[in-house]
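Troubleshooting log. The previous run stalled partway through. Resubmitting the same two chains, unchanged.
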Amino acid sequence: MSPLVELAILNGVVQGVMYALVAAGLTLIFGLLDIPNFAHGAFYALGAYAAFSVISSTGNFWLAIVVAPVAVAILGLLVDALAMRRLARAGHVYQILFTLGLVLIVQEAIVLVWGADPTSVNVPARLDGGIPLGAVSFPYYRLFLVAAAAVVIGAVWLGLQRTKAGAIIRAGIDDPAMVECLGIDVQRLFTAVFGIGVALAALAGALILPIRGGEPAMGNELMAVSFAVVVIGGLGSFLGAVVGGVLVGLTQALMTIVYPAASEVAIFAAMALVILMRPQGLFGAR
Amino acid sequence: MRPFGVLAAVVVLAPFLLHYPTLETQILTFGLLSVAFYLLLGELGFLSFGQATFNGIGAYATARTLIDGHAPLLVALLVGTLAGALGAALIGALAVRGRGVYGVMLTFAFNEMAYYIAFQWRGVTGGDNGLGGLPAPELFGLSLDDPVRYYYFTAALVLLTFAAVLRLIRSPFGAVLRAIRENEERARAIGFRVQRFKIVCFAISGGLSGLAGGLYAGVFHFVPLQSIDLDMSTNIVVAGILGGAGSPYGALLGAAVFIVLSDSLSHVWAHWPLLFGIVFCAVVLFFRGGLWSIVQQRNSYASHA
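Second attempt completed without errors. Output:
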């Protein structure tokens, strides 16, 4: 294998893991809570810009990847409490429309606050450099991305499967009325899940910032891809989000070498095929 | 027919009242797109997130017919309309098989595919440079290469089409669409072939969008790549909802407000989309009838007084 292909595969995996992180958040919101959140990409972009602000004022990357997701998640909690709950009764169409409006607001607010020009930050000094792979080298920072995403996705999955709060959430999704009869405020838990989903998107934005930089419309393309990932992997399935994300990332990377013209079309064609042939996705139960 | 009379009068007098014929032509073509969106959402109850697909297909088909076929304008527009309808029938046939949000996602996925195809297929679409070199529009030897003349040409076609849409909505076909919107299972139980009605509704919506795309191509003798991108689809959704998803007149009103505001506000404040987003979210949350419901309320007060 030529080093170019090797590098493309590695980069594809890294990109795919980032997709998986965003899609894991979307699968919580869309799959579990049944809210088609078209603003998921906007939260990702906000995460990147929030991290940019923290880094440019404190110089501390590690602080940024903690503060940015928390700050954006608080915004997400507000959105859920003030709007999404009210819209739940009106149905999916209005939830889609409202989150679409959020995209317009966030994108323009970013331009207003941070300007329309792309922003960038350096890779943190401790993760500078890379592993030599013959003629090329693979940056440490990308390895860190994969590890960080794996840890966070694993933690959320464990929290959902192995903790009491996770059990209540899963029960609340299956039968909210029954859980409420037990005296538990399901809505509050759902709002928390929405916040965690948003935080995952924002974290992905913060993590990608040193590689890709930020630009106001960065969320749009990612939103489309993450919906494709969630649909391909199976709505509500964590495993599906991870496998789907890596598959999509790899496909994009390899198509860019083999037949770049079709690399984007392939993703959305796969998404359409999955909806038509296997609506529950690769790993979905429903 | 009273609102249609008012509409026709406004459309005919517009260039005299405010002399911006090119902008007014854009209002009409965008209005047609908004009406096409309304037909799917308002009558059938299907949120299409890919209306730009049919707009783009129509625009490119019209442009290619003019450039390669040296065809008369009306023939080229007919080709654009049919291409839009055919594209929408094909995409619609697949989209209506997705349940609920999945249907929306399919229109969205096909829009993304169409965009990337148009982006890559430079020989036909000009890629991101857009497709230029359209001949100056001409009708039976009469040059339409004048903003006011082209406006009236567009106005005649759009008003005719709009009248046909109103007629369609009042027809038994329209009643079946609304029956499907209200209760799909019941419509099926009565014996209507629900999927077929949905696909035909898609085809009609695509045809209207294709015509709008073709007419727009004539304004600047140019088809920009933006005519098929997702932002275009978003704008159509925003205009349709802003005007009100309850009436085809609302769809036209929303389009007019959208074009006028985006044109005038962009000179005043560069960040106008922010205001737009806020107003849009407020409409979705509190005011689902949109602008048209205000007009209607005023009318009903007036008639009671």
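Takeaways: Chain A touches chain B at residues 36, 83, 86-87, 90, 92-94, 96-98, 100-105, 107-109, 111-112, 220, 224, 227-228, 231, 261-262, 264-265, 268-269, 271-272, 275-276, 279 (CB under 8 Å). The longest helix of chain A spans residues 3-32.
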